[in-house]
């Protein structure tokens, strides 16, 4: 059993087909078939059974897949760490949430790239809750997250900025002149929310649940441009960070009567090895002037 054989085995698990796994790995089909036979012969077990044209894992195969995934992940992490020690890596993986990513990330990224042009960021757009799962699974090195409270103990974080959640409506909306709102004023109101993997959307849904109200959600979307279009044409209202709402002169931002605050943070696993590139980014972000972004174009209706 070798790492290469386990990688081929996992590819067969993924595609449920030797031929498709071979195509994905850019190696011959007989080579992949031979690898599966070698593993089965080595341990005197059957890893797959045939169901029509698909290969389905046996109980033994499922056990090997789980352990193989762990080993491959550890192998990849070790490779990255050794490259990092040799100063050859110069890249890391970061998750960016849709709202905070729009407000805070572009200017931070631009400034960081100017200071460290040799470091490449592999960016995944994902909500804060999904980012935590990706960090736990080792699929991200770092995540920008929007949290209503301190993260769970398995994570470390570095605070970047604090923002307030507001309701955004068109100037002609019935709530456009309201000084403040609560969820009871939104009963039956058409809403567009970011995905349920985002902390702000979960906070809003919790507020409705506390009042035993069912929100009228037209759709969930991670596309900010689509959400803004729904707001501006009066189709629906939506919840945005105040720092983001201030950048939209055609929208009216109405705060909650009891303000809802979120901290935008950089998040990583507490027991995770931090690559040099990640540490450079954390130090740079700590010195970056996010308050200027928040205060820029300060505007409330």
TrEMBL record:
<dbReference type="InterPro" id="IPR036388">
    <property type="entry name" value="WH-like_DNA-bd_sf"/>
</dbReference>
<keyword id="KW-0238">DNA-binding</keyword>
<feature type="domain" description="HTH lysR-type">
    <location>
        <begin position="1"/>
        <end position="58"/>
    </location>
</feature>
<dbReference type="InterPro" id="IPR000847">
    <property type="entry name" value="LysR_HTH_N"/>
</dbReference>
<dbReference type="Pfam" id="PF03466">
    <property type="entry name" value="LysR_substrate"/>
</dbReference>
<protein>
    <submittedName>
        <fullName>LysR family transcriptional regulator</fullName>
    </submittedName>
</protein>
<keyword id="KW-0804">Transcription</keyword>
<dbReference type="InterPro" id="IPR005119">
    <property type="entry name" value="LysR_subst-bd"/>
</dbReference>
<dbReference type="InterPro" id="IPR036390">
    <property type="entry name" value="WH_DNA-bd_sf"/>
</dbReference>
<dbReference type="Pfam" id="PF00126">
    <property type="entry name" value="HTH_1"/>
</dbReference>
<comment type="similarity">
    <text>Belongs to the LysR transcriptional regulatory family.</text>
</comment>
<keyword id="KW-0805">Transcription regulation</keyword>
């Amino acid at each position: 059993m070798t790492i290469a054989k386990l990688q081929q085995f996992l590819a067969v698990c993924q595609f449920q087909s030797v031929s498709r796994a071979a195509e994905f790995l850019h190696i011959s089909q007989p080579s992949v078939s031979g690898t599966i036979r070698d593993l089965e012969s080595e341990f005197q077990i059957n890893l797959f059974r045939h169901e029509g044209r698909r290969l389905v894992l046996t109980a033994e195969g499922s056990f090997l897949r789980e352990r193989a995934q762990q080993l491959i992940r550890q192998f990849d992490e070790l490779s990255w760490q050794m490259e990092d020690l040799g100063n050859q890596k110069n890249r890391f993986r970061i998750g960016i949430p849709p709202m905070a990513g729009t407000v805070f990330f572009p200017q931070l990224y631009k400034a960081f790239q100017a200071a460290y042009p040799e470091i490449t960021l592999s960016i995944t757009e994902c909500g804060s809750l999904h980012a935590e799962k990706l960090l736990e699974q080792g699929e991200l090195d770092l995540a920008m997250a929007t949290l209503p409270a301190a993260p769970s103990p398995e994570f470390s974080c570095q605070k970047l900025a604090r923002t307030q959640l507001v309701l955004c409506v068109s100037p002609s909306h019935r709530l456009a002149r309201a000084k403040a709102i609560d969820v009871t004023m939104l009963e039956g109101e058409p809403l567009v929310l970011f995905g349920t993997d985002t902390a702000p959307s979960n906070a809003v849904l919790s507020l409705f649940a506390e009042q035993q109200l069912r929100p009228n959600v037209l759709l969930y979307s991670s596309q900010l441009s689509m959400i803004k279009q729904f707001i501006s044409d009066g189709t629906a209202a939506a919840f945005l960070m105040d720092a983001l709402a201030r950048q939209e002169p055609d929208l009216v931002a109405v705060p909650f009567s009891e303000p809802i605050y979120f901290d935008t943070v950089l998040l990583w696993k507490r027991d995770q090895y931090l690559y040099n590139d990640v540490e450079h980014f954390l130090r740079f972000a700590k010195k970056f002037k996010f308050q200027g972004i928040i205060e820029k174009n300060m505007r409330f209706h």
